[in-house]
Design brief:
Number of helices of chain A: 11
Helix content of chain A: 25-40%
Number of strands of chain A: 8
Largest sheet of chain A: 2 strands, antiparallel
Strand content of chain B: under 5%
Order of helices and strands of chain B: HHHEHHHHEHHHHHHHHHHHH
Oligomer: heterodimer
Helix content of chain B: 55-70%
Structural class of chain B: mainly alpha
Order of helices and strands of chain A: HEHHHHHHHHEEEHEHEEE
Strand content of chain A: 5-15%
Number of helices of chain B: 19
Shape of chain B: elongated
Distance between the termini of chain B: 84 Å
Radius of gyration of chain B: 26 Å
Radius of gyration of chain A: 27 Å
Distance between the termini of chain A: 17 Å
Largest interface: A-B, 76 and 72 residues
Structural class of chain A: mainly alpha
Strand order of the largest sheet of chain B: 1-2
Number of strands of chain B: 2
Largest sheet of chain B: 2 strands, antiparallel
Chain lengths: ~280, ~400
């Protein structure tokens, strides 16, 4: 799979203006919910409907609202993108949709050929991104005045885990500094029966109370792939109001990469499979 | 001049009076007793959750907001809550808040005079007039509903046993919320009229609370490290810790049941149905589908009275229905804040902004679904994929292998 640059995404996710009937029929095709009353379902184009008829069927798509209403509904965003309408020109059985959509999504044959050649070249060169491929993909879609939200970021492959506790203080600092492969990041670091660490603390908790509370706590040491009993662990903060008693691990983007845009660098598509593009 | 009037005083005079009062009150044992000691009907049993939550109940926070009002009490004389708490360089506004609502109470002038007498200070007559001019306006923030309950629960459950700490942090959160409301021009008024903006306001409350929690956690960490001389964090470690603390605070707030009810579920329960049935106000939808034409004149008058921005707007209200009045209503009633928020969101998504990445991290933990939230992240998984190998031929979409076909 190819990483998509921001410019390509903007073209793909670009919005065009379509009438509400087109949007409704696109929604019907993908969701299976019809907006037509019984008996009118096969009429073409879809009978003009009011919002009350949609209500109770599918609240999300029902926000398409009354076609007579000029307000921009939420759901229409998703059905108005170049990518979605491109799909609709090929697969929506309604000629009404096709007639409306093809005007803005016609792809000439030479552009299609250009895309295929660019893909073949990329596979042959074994690179996930090439300038020709980006140019060809950009040429497929018309530019729109606006686009739906998208984020071209790539997930972090290594993530630093802030440990709640560790076997020792040096161990705690070592874990803080040592990233884990994303596959190794645990879903939960504590698996005590009562999830006691997230419970309410007693306001008058003493040190003894705290130690008692931690007897039932077991922690998963992801670096050592081992269980760590609460009482014998080193806790970074040992007061009642400690800051690391509740830990939610990052799964998508690690702390180091939060404010750094991803680089769309070319990597290998395949493991040097000869003749793969043939 | 009327002894307790704000009319005729400038804004800087009012602030001067507040600062003087603040500095005097801080040295006053009676006042500190009021602030720091349990109030009657407030906390009975510190180990009882219900009693602890009462900290925020009538005594200090919720029943009344002070508004600066002249005796005439015309809207022009009134300082809005946003102005009141949103200014930089003000005295500690939480103290002021407490002071106005409960310290001075009905016998404001007497209490103030006593305060200055105990400090062996002479109160400036102008200051007395200004401070006595503080009056209560009953706006029940508790009926803001979920947002306040969220605060109550969070502070009751996660804070230390210092009552003062609860009050201080509650005040911090409220100030953050009001600053956000002012910044984004989100309506700020009575509960009934704010109901249409509850999702946004609740979101801002949650964000503010997360920020206060994050700040407090960093304070604890740095304090512990310095006190025990145990850790010497490198800059990189500190950055990692700070990012993790921010992630923790936001995720904790987002996993709260009140956040679910007040932001996520609120939309389903309170917004969609009336909108779809054509009975409700389209502004309900985050203010996005705003439509002022279905408001009644009575509603308009009420809102503008509560949220007056200038006397000119009040005058314009008297104008007959028409484009000018519509424009005014758009400005007063339904600021297009959501349009602006949405534009920012789209831009920050495209820029891979830090807020987007933080949000994604939180959603991966809280949504219990990895699929639904990556649809707008086309490259998300690429970095975690390995190149295709010979073995993958059998698993491809064109595979003739039966098991592969079934799965696909």
């Amino acid at each position: 799979m190819m990483p998509l640059s921001a410019s390509v995404c903007k073209r793909m996710m670009g919005r065009q203006t379509y009438d509400n009937t087109t949007i409704m029929q696109c929604s019907e095709m993908l969701t299976g919910f019809t907006t037509a009353v019984i008996g009118d379902a096969l009429k073409h184009p879809t009978t003009i409907l009011n919002a009350a008829q949609i209500a109770g069927v599918n609240t999300y798509d029902a926000s398409l609202n009354n076609p007579a209403d000029a307000q921009m509904p939420w759901a229409s965003d998703e059905y108005s993108t170049n990518l979605m309408q491109c799909f609709m020109t090929l697969f929506n059985p309604s000629t009404y949709v096709y007639d409306n959509s093809i005007q803005k999504n016609f792809i000439p044959d030479h552009v299609k050929r250009q895309v295929m050649v660019a893909f073949a070249d990329a596979i042959e060169a074994n690179k996930t991104i090439m300038p020709d491929l980006e140019r060809a993909l950009t040429a497929v879609f018309q530019s729109g005045t606006s686009h739906v939200p998208f984020c071209p970021a790539k997930a972090s492959t290594n993530i630093k885990v802030v440990p709640m506790a560790a076997h020792s203080e040096p161990d705690w600092l070592h874990q803080l500094r040592t990233p884990l492969a994303w596959r190794e990041v645990p879903f939960s670091v504590d698996f005590s029966a009562s999830r006691i660490l997230r419970d309410t603390y007693a306001l008058s908790e003493t040190d003894a109370d705290r130690d008692t509370r931690r007897i039932a706590v077991y922690l998963w040491d992801a670096h050592k792939k081992d269980v760590l009993p609460g009482p014998s662990a080193y806790w970074s903060c040992d007061r009642m109001d400690n800051a690391i008693d509740v830990v939610y691990l990052m799964r998508s983007f690690c702390a180091d990469e939060l404010d750094t845009p991803s680089l769309l660098d070319a990597t290998k598509i395949h493991t040097d499979l000869h003749g793969a593009a043939a | 001049m009327d002894q307790t009037s704000l009319i005729g005083f400038s804004r800087s005079q009012v602030l001067d009076a507040l600062k003087t009062l603040y500095n005097t009150a801080l040295d006053d044992e009676v006042f500190l007793q009021f602030i720091m000691v349990t109030q009657p009907n407030n906390i009975v049993d510190a180990t009882n959750l219900a009693d602890r939550t009462r900290v925020l109940d009538p005594a200090h926070v919720s029943t009344a907001y002070p508004f600066l009002m002249g005796d005439a009490a015309t809207p022009q004389d009134r300082m809005t809550m946003t102005e009141y708490t949103g200014l930089e360089n003000n005295p500690n506004l939480f103290f002021m808040w407490v002071l106005c609502t409960h310290w001075s109470g009905g016998a404001g002038v007497a209490a103030l005079t006593g305060l200055f007498r105990r400090a062996n200070k002479t109160i400036d007559p102008d200051h007395l007039s200004i401070l006595g001019g503080f009056k209560r306006q009953l706006i029940d923030y508790t009926s803001m509903g979920v947002g306040t309950r969220l605060l109550v629960n969070q502070f009751a459950c996660h804070k230390t046993n210092a009552v003062y700490s609860n009050q201080k942090e509650t005040g911090d959160v409220m100030r953050c919320v009001n600053n956000l409301q002012e910044h984004f021009d989100v309506f700020n008024g009575t509960a009934a009229l704010s109901a249409q903006y509850m999702i946004t306001i609740n979101t801002m409350i949650a964000a503010s609370e997360a920020f206060v929690k994050y700040r407090r956690n960093l304070q604890v960490l740095s304090h512990m490290a310095a006190r025990d001389k145990r850790h010497v964090y490198s800059k990189e470690d500190a950055n990692t810790l700070a990012a993790a603390m921010a992630h923790n605070a936001l995720t904790q707030v987002c996993t709260d049941e009140d956040f679910f009810n007040g932001v996520i579920k609120w939309d389903i329960d309170n917004i969609r149905a009336p909108m779809l049935n054509g009975l409700g106000n389209k502004r309900n939808n985050f203010g996005y589908n705003r439509n002022s034409t279905i408001l009644t004149n009575a509603g308009i008058a009420a809102v503008v009275t509560q949220n007056t921005r200038s006397a000119a707007q009040l005058i314009a209200l008297a104008a007959p229905v028409g484009p000018a009045k519509d424009a005014l209503l758009q400005a007063c009633l339904a600021p297009p804040y959501f349009d602006i928020l949405y534009e920012n969101f789209v831009q920050e998504m495209a820029d891979e902004h830090i807020t987007v990445k933080q949000t994604h991290n939180i959603m991966m933990t809280t949504s219990h679904s990895a699929g639904a939230n990556i649809t707008h992240f086309p490259n998300y998984h690429l970095s975690r994929c390995t190149p295709l190998s010979e073995d993958d031929r059998n698993k491809s979409a064109s595979s003739q292998d039966d098991a592969t076909w079934v799965l696909q």
